[in-house]
Amino acid sequence: MKTLSAFALALTLASGAAFAQGSGGSGGGGTDAGPGGVNTGKDAAAQNPTTQQCAKGWDSSMRMTQAEFNEKCKKL
CA dihedral defined by 10, 14, 15, 17, rounded to 10 degrees? Predict the structure, then answer.
């Protein structure tokens, strides 16, 4: 009987640990990275400005600093 109880306890703990890690789905969180920390591309505009944005220039509504914007526009 003790063996069965120990097995049931171990199984319950293992199941709880698996659920505690989450599914990695879109149930919230604060980043645009998908499961495993892989960028899903949702925030690509913040990472790389378009040639039109570079021609228009940086503004404070962009999700990068002016220095980052200028550096990325130089690479285009």
Answer: 140
| CA pair distance 62, 67, nearest whole angstrom | 12
Q: Which two tokens stand for residue 28?
A: 């919230």
**Token duo for residue 60:** 């404070």
Whether residue 59 contacts residue 67, with contact meaning beta carbons closer than 8 Å, is answered with no
Rounded to two decimals, what is the model's pTM? 0.42
- From the list 49, 58, 56, 57, the residue with the least C-alpha distance to 76 is 49
DSSP class of residue 60 equals T
- Ramachandran assignment for 49, one of left (phi > 0), alpha (psi -120 to 50 degrees), beta (any other): beta
Q: What is the mean pLDDT of the chain?
A: 71
